[in-house]
């Protein structure tokens, strides 16, 4: 696995940013721990997903690249795949739900992605993507339930652990599970008994319930400010989480907003609500992290400035 991650990293390195790791004494004091924030909000297109998208495209054959790629995504992976495809000279067909944030649709178009809108249901997204596959001969790349995507995402944890080799824990937000799965693989490959914990909103706590039940659970509602975490797990990500993630900590909407505001005000950086979920979990479960060295992955910074949760 270590070799797979290293090969993926070397493959994508020319196309991504090696993002900084920053600290805050103020937040350390509040948490009672030493926190090391891996700032994927500074990644190209503003989120970690650039890593996985780039790796997945680079693994395609020349014929597949010529026919293009297709995915379905409400936001960050749509942007990542569109930009990665543009960088690599590949046509990208992006299926987006009609209620996806306009700022994310605009970014996809700016990166040269061809958007097809659909009803905001998973069934509609999958049906529309399949139709494009059949019509264009494009290769489908899943936003998270794809091992090449996960290996690309693992590079963020690799960079973090190479900079701070003695981390006790890494915490990352959980949506479809592509980030935390890659993080867990990196913790095994590059960490020194480093454990991985997930963070998730109560409102969409399918990963927490999946770990409890031992099977993939779905979300019946998606009423959370953390729009990047509404997706349910796939079979690949579920198995990796079930085997390699210690636990999932759930947080309230109020805790997410409070953590997001804290990062903006004290660290002077822009993160989206999904990113703030990881810090919210540290602050709401301090006993879990007391006196430990903790990596916190800030997954992205794509925010609609017209819809900020604080004034």
Automatic annotation (TrEMBL):
* GO BP terms in the entry: D-serine biosynthetic process
Q: What would be an example GO MF term here?
A: D-serine ammonia-lyase activity
Identify the domain of life. Answer: Bacteria
Instruction: Name its co-factor(s).
Output: pyridoxal 5'-phosphate
- InterPro entries per UniProt: TrpB-like_PALP (IPR001926), TrpB-like_PALP_sf (IPR036052)
Any single Pfam family the record assigns to this protein = PALP
Q: Which UniProt keywords apply?
A: Lyase, Pyridoxal phosphate
- Where do the Tryptophan synthase beta chain-like PALP domain residues begin and end? 13-300
Keyword Cell membrane assigned to the entry: answer is: no
User: Which PANTHER family does its entry note?
Assistant: SERINE / THREONINE RACEMASE FAMILY MEMBER, SERINE RACEMASE
Family stated for the protein in its record: Belongs to the serine/threonine dehydratase family.
Report the protein name in the record: Pyridoxal-phosphate dependent enzyme
């Amino acid at each position: 696995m270590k070799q797979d991650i290293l090969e993926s990293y070397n493959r994508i390195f020319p196309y991504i940013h090696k993002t900084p790791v920053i600290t805050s004494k103020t937040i350390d004091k509040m948490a009672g721990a030493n926190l090391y924030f891996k700032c994927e909000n500074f990644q190209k297109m503003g989120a970690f997903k650039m890593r996985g998208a780039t790796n997945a495209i680079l693994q395609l054959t020349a014929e597949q690249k010529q026919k293009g790629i297709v995915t379905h995504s409400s936001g960050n992976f749509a942007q990542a795949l569109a930009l990665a495809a543009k960088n690599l000279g590949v046509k990208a067909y992006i299926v987006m739900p009609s209620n996806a944030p306009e700022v994310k649709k605009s970014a996809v178009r700016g990166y040269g992605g061809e958007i097809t809108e659909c009803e905001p249901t998973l069934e509609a997204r999958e049906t529309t993507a399949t139709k494009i596959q059949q019509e264009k001969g494009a290769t489908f790349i899943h936003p998270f339930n794809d091992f090449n995507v996960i290996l690309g995402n693992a590079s963020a944890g690799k960079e973090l652990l190479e900079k701070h080799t003695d981390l006790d824990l890494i915490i990352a937000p959980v949506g479809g599970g592509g980030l935390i799965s890659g993080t867990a693989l990196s913790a095994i490959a590059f960490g020194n008994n480093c454990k991985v914990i997930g963070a998730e909103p109560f409102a969409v706590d399918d990963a927490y319930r999946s770990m409890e039940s031992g099977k993939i659970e779905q979300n019946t509602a998606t009423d959370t400010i953390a729009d990047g975490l509404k997706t349910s797990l796939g079979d690949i990500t579920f198995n990796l989480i079930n085997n390699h993630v210690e636990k999932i900590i759930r947080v309230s909407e109020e805790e997410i907003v409070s953590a997001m505001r804290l990062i903006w005000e004290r660290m002077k950086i822009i993160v989206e609500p999904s990113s703030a979920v990881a810090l919210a979990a540290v602050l709401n479960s301090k006993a879990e992290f007391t006196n430990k060295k903790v990596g916190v992955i800030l997954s992205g910074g794509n925010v609609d400035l017209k819809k900020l949760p604080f004034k």
